[in-house]
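ok trying this again, last paste got cut off
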Amino acid sequence: MLTAARTAPNRAFVHPFDRKYGTDTSGYLGPEELVKGRANDAHNYGYSAIAPSVFREAYRRWRETLPAVSGRVEGYSFVDLGCGKGRALLLAAEWPFRKIIGVELIDELSSIAESNAARWTKATNSKARIRVMRQDATTFQWPRAPLLVYLYNPFACSLVAQIAARLASIAAAGSAPVDLLYVNPTCADALSTQGGFAHLWTLRITMDAADQEADPYGTTSDLVSAYRLK
């Protein structure tokens, strides 16, 4: 069995993002460190945070797919399922989403995400609406579409399939799109078998130098896929 130190040799490295804003989003926690006897605990894939350069490039590529006339980011809610310590929420707040919501089952992580949101908001004087929901992603009550749903390979494919089915029902009930950004999409088959998910693109996005140095796994890029339900 791989230890956390072998899986993520740079897990103790503090990312420049945290040094700049006084937040705590760095590091790696293995799945076994997050099991506390809760429902769906055993399906978690551990914690690490998206490289800011990868997130920003993925957002830019997604933004290019929106209609020139009606595709206003201000109309979208951003939802991060399995938000962990909340770095993606803070990065999403760089743009004018209608709502920014993180869903996190693990109390320890959701508490850190809430503190990070408060610290980041104070440091940046941001007016973004960031909310962290302490609950199971499979029971989350979705805001109205349009939605941009973000997954950073957070949990097992069985849960991804459940969420895909719920999102498909939301999309079928209205005319507004439901989009997904899926980083390291190990459960992409759960989307294709569900039906209705149009594949927009898949890209391997290279991290910038600062992100490569701070990456807990010692990697230099992430694979990102984008999908659209309508």
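PB: full thing came through this time. The mean pLDDT is 89.
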